[in-house]
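Hello,

Our lab assistant flagged a job as stuck in the queue for most of the afternoon. It eventually completed. Since we weren't sure the result was trustworthy after the delay, we are filing this so someone can double-check. Below is the sequence as submitted and the structure that was eventually returned. Let us know if re-running is recommended.
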Amino acid sequence: MSAALKSNQKGLLLVFAAALFMSIGGLCVKMIPWQALSINSFRSLLSVVVLLAFARLSHHRLRLSPGVLLGGLAVFGATTLYTVANKMTTAGNAVLLQFTAPIFVILFSWLVFREKPHRRDIVACLCVFGGVCCFFLDSLGSGRLAGDVVAVIAGVSYCWVFMMNKLPGADPLCSAILGHGLGGLVGLPSLVQESQFTPTALTCGVLLGVVQMGLAYACLTTGIRYVKPVTASLVTGIEPVLNPILVALIFTAVIIALLYWFFGTELGSGIRATGANPNMSRAQGINVGRNKVLGLMLSNGIVALSSALYAQYQGFSDVNAGRGAIVIGLAAVIIGDVLFARIFHNFALKLVAVVIGAVIYYVVIQIVLTLGLNSLKLFSALVVAVFLAVPYWKGKAFRSKAKAIPAEKEGAPHA
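-- returned structure --
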């Protein structure tokens, strides 16, 4: 493998790591009861400390030049203006308009640096932007013109973050330190007025500063040295998609871990025994009635948690949003059991199978909606019926094969 290819792969991995670190922002920001500029100031000041420590460990010499100043303004615009845009327009508009950055990278590379874009870069750019559009389609709104303009300027600034290396006298790390320092100073008057410095807020703020900004820009400023700006901007385009997925994965992992621990206790084992065989459980002295009530309380608590997350993601709540939830839960259990019963024997893995079953069910339903078919309830029932019938069909097929094998053995000597 050539040295250039190794460097390119190293750069891609670093940029992907930066996108992964940035994706924790959605989870942490929602748990901090501060103004947007206060959050940006707190995380920016912490990220300056992290980046200075990274520069010290990597023996990177700090310097100031016109290229560093321009890069610092780009970083400042990409972080601070995006935060302001979130307040002035809808979240969906702000995300989409900032992630027009790959388009601006191609445009400015052509106009400023006279680099003719490749056709595959244009196609990939349009595909990524279209994918982000589809992902945030439900969150889009009319917004306000001023907020949309600020979001577009944030997108232009973000594109120059990936092109910092092309500026005269460029130093991406120094530019990141300067840009985050400016962001911290601009939001400092708002930060000092905050009063809710709870342990949760401080913990999430530290995660934002150290991981989402500090480590992310340490990886990004190193990675863009080895990959093209267009490639780097396209790779980081997965960040808004990773954001809600990462939140879902974290919550799912925590809930599965807690349930696995609880159902391993004496009380949890009693609830499982009650569900498996109430008569035998009653004969063993287990309070079946109490366990049924506890099971219902636990399940309804998890339903309430999922409903709260759903309402927070949508930005509103509807009294009819929970209709059909029983069918979805039943389908998730059936699909997960049918597909993974022979593979997953551990209780924690069975819970994972239920989660995968729910995802598969929603994928099928989304395909039905995409095709424009109106009979959603009919297709939901068909999906559940098909997965219920799969074990019967498999058992019938195995029984017919088992009957055929002895018959073949009996007829073999006469052949």
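-- support follow-up --
The delay was a queue issue, not a problem with the job. The result is valid. Residues 376-411 form the longest helix (36 residues). The chain has a mean pLDDT of 79.
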